[in-house]
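your task:
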Amino acid sequence: MTIQAIKRAIKWLLSPPLVERGPGPGVYLTFDDGPHPEYTPRILDALKSCNAKATFFMIGSEMERYPGLVADVLAQGHTIGLHSYRHAHPRSLSVAEAVQDIRRSMDLARRFGFELRYYRPPYGELLVVQILLCAWKGIGVVLWSKEGRDSFMTRQDELLARFRDLRVLDGDILLLHDDSAVTAEALPKLLEMLGVDGTRFVALGEA
């Protein structure tokens, strides 16, 4: 690690630039825990029909199981970030395991033809060593500003009602899951509801 990288990591550790909102203009849709063989294609179709872009925070082991879906997401102009390799809780990992998880995620991204620019930690938690490694490698740690809680829902009207009650603003990062049947079913109506005032749906890093 160079002196410059160490300084950058220390600066980040003292004031971690955890991203909870995007710069806008637009709303940032993010989907965790995929790719899923049934629901991810439906979500891609809904996004395409609205000319919307999104960021998919994928689990590494699922990427290896469904490489065709990874290629589809990239081909349609969406952004892929990593959501760890196996979605283990950071506090359950040793220091070596935590470092290996991020390194393995970086290697996996390169195998699929992209550099890892964004990482969302499972459960929104990071170990100090992971923060340092992300800082050293220039990887942005992305959290969220509005949570769909779709993993706990069984009906699409629940998800629509939640976002109807939330005040979604320009720059918000919305947390959803593409392994959720509810999300796959509700997304067309959700995009219509949130986009009624002309809101754009953009991916992280999109100009």
About this structure: The first helix runs from residue 3 to 14.
